[in-house]
Write a structure and sequence with these properties.
single chain; 232 residues; alpha/beta; Rossmann fold; Arc Repressor Mutant, subunit A; 2 domains; five-stranded parallel beta sheet; four-stranded antiparallel beta sheet; 8 helices; 21% strand; globular
């Protein structure tokens, strides 16, 4: 049996112990670091299946660790859940912009965290097992097997969550997806997120698309769609 590995970077020993204990009960293998710099080193060397990062850490904060993970070739696809004692919306947006897959505000239920971890890993397994992994529409191509996006001849560097959102839109060009639909498909029905979550990710994808940003269309008051193939 393939045991899933979870990295925890949390400087509060009591919280880290609770998380590690509950993950261990569910059959996960866990490693823990209390210092941000040591946590990033642990993740680079151990290459876990998922990382749980506190935002406020000594040495290097969780947002910076997230940024480093997304810029590193061999660990960039690791799903990330961020923890914070702050509930300010700007911290949520910042974490998402850096590539976090989910965000939980302290205090939280250990059961809630476990379910979030399982949901993210389950979605990743489903995506990895999908047989329809090559998508191409107009100037855009999406390779789910390689987790690659190309726009004409340029490689587009997307976070894991951005990749899922784009894949969802590209699979059904012309179909309008409500924000809630995209949230449930990408983050899961049990995700607790702010209203701007999808908007933040869409803005980031469009920025990376440059002159082709209009491939993703806004349907005011409803949501988003990928431009119909017949109009490309």
């Amino acid at each position: 049996m393939n045991i899933r590995r979870i990295a925890i970077v949390e400087d509060e020993p009591d919280i880290a112990e609770i998380i590690a204990y509950n993950l261990g009960r569910e059959g996960f293998e866990v490693q823990h670091a209390e210092h941000g710099t040591e946590g990033l080193k642990m993740i680079k060397e151990w290459k876990p299946d998922l990382a749980i990062l506190d935002i406020m850490l000594p040495g290097m904060d969780g947002v910076e660790i997230c940024r480093n993970i997304r810029q590193a070739e061999n660990i960039r696809d690791i799903p990330i859940i961020m923890l914070s004692a702050k509930d300010d919306e700007i911290d949520v947006v910042l974490g998402l912009r850096m590539g976090a897959d989910d965000y939980i505000t302290k205090p939280f239920s250990p059961r809630e965290l476990i379910e979030r971890v399982k949901a993210i890993l389950r979605r990743r397994r489903i995506n990895d097992d999908s047989s329809e992994n090559q998508l191409a529409y107009g100037p855009l191509s999406v390779d789910k097997d390689r987790h690659e996006v190309k726009l004409i001849d340029d490689n587009i560097d997307l976070t894991a969550t951005e990749f899922k959102i784009l894949s969802c839109l590209v699979e059904r060009p012309g179909r309008v997806f409500k924000r809630d639909d995209l949230l449930s498909r990408v983050l899961g029905d049990d995700a607790i997120v702010i209203d701007r979550t999808i908007d933040v990710h869409i803005r980031s994808i469009r920025k990376k698309f440059g002159d082709h940003r209009d491939l993703i269309e806004t349907v005011r008051g409803v949501g988003y769609r990928f431009k119909d193939i017949e109009s490309l």
